[in-house]
Amino acid sequence: MRKKVDRKDVAAELWPGVSLGLLQALHLVTRDGDLNADARRKVKQIRHLLGLLAPAFDDALARHKDPVIVDCGAGKSALGFVAYETVLAPAGRGTMWSIESRPELVAAAEERARALGHARMRFVSGDIATAAVPERVHVVTALHACDTATDDALVLAIDRGADHVAVVPCCQAEVARQLADHKPADPAAAALCAHPWHRRELGSHLTNVVRALALEARGYQVTVTELAGWEHSLKNELILGRRVQRFDRAAQARLDAVLDRFGVRPALIRALDARPIAS
Ligand SMILES: C[S@@+](CC[C@H](N)C(=O)[O-])C[C@H]1O[C@@H](n2cnc3c(N)ncnc32)[C@H](O)[C@@H]1O
């Protein structure tokens, strides 16, 4: 028979600083105080991500009186809730915004925030591209935002001049389709994507390379790293950006070379085409 776990022990062991009420509301801990099957893995994922985001949150808190954090494609807003409880609530300032296109998830998260008394959490129901968030945004995150929703999050960060941006892209198929529709003229590039499987892998890789280069071109210092323990290797990449300047011409040249060599025009690039940098 399975040993019954003490509720408080579970909460403390799982996540110091995170309330048992939140762990239960997010279905990481059952009403009886048991762990759900995937709970440990899920908690490990979010904890690891928050650890990597800590310098960005610390910097935002150090530089701004009321930092604005925006989580895009938030789902149940697990990341936002935990960031609130472990970072913004102890700091006593800062506002956590979550953007999510499924209204039922937004309504449930709003209700959860009310019940937990998290007064500085805001929820926007709708698309990232048109979401009414404050003009000045300091940290933008997107954890597994579907397909090109990751690009919408990057555009939001660039548009609002966010100090920090962190995205963990989800699967995406757009560039693989572009590679299939227009075979690259360069024979080496064409050989890299001759087979559908390779097109899918290369398409995914190219999309993230382009995302990193586009951020660099728009003045971000970029780190690409792995999120340990994730279930799917294609969703295991974290792209972190810290804004250090307005524009980087050398990075733009590298980006143009990649786009040219492979003959692709991903969603992010099409969106940025409409946002030329004033010289
Ligand atoms: C795979 S889930 C990830 C949820 C959450 N970030 C997490 O890691 O648990 C992606 C979420 O993004 C939302 N989404 C997808 N495209 C969106 C868009 N353009 N604007 C806002 N939300 C979007 C979906 O409804 C879904 O809830």
Describe this structure in a few short sentences:
With 279 residues, this protein is α/β, with parallel strands linked by helices. Helices cover 48% and strands 14% of the residues.
Question: Can you characterise this structure?
Answer:
α6 (149-159) links the parallel β4 and β5 (164-168). Strands 3-2-1-4-5-7-6 form a seven-stranded mixed beta sheet, with helices on both faces. The radius of gyration is 20 Å and the shape is globular. α7 (174-181) packs across α9 and α9 (196-217) packs antiparallel against α10. 39% of the residues are buried. The chain has helices at residues 7-14, 20-25, 39-63, 78-91, 103-116, 149-159, 174-181, 187-191, 196-217, 249-262, 267-273, and strands at residues 68-72, 95-100, 121-125, 139-143, 164-168, 220-226, 237-243. By secondary structure, the protein is an alpha/beta fold. The model has no long low-confidence stretch (mean pLDDT 90). It has a domain at 171-220 and 245-279.
List the helices and strands and how they pair.
Elements: H1 7-14, H2 20-25, H3 39-63, E1 68-72, H4 78-91, E2 95-100, H5 103-116, E3 121-125, E4 139-143, H6 149-159, E5 164-168, H7 174-181, H8 187-191, H9 196-217, E6 220-226, E7 237-243, H10 249-262, H11 267-273
Parallel strand pairs: 1-2, 1-4, 2-3, 4-5
Antiparallel strand pairs: 5-7, 6-7
Helix pairs in contact: 3-4, 6-11, 7-9, 9-10
Bound molecules: S-adenosylmethionine.
S-adenosylmethionine is lined by residues 73-75, 78, 99-102, 105, 127-128, 143-146, 149, 152, 170.
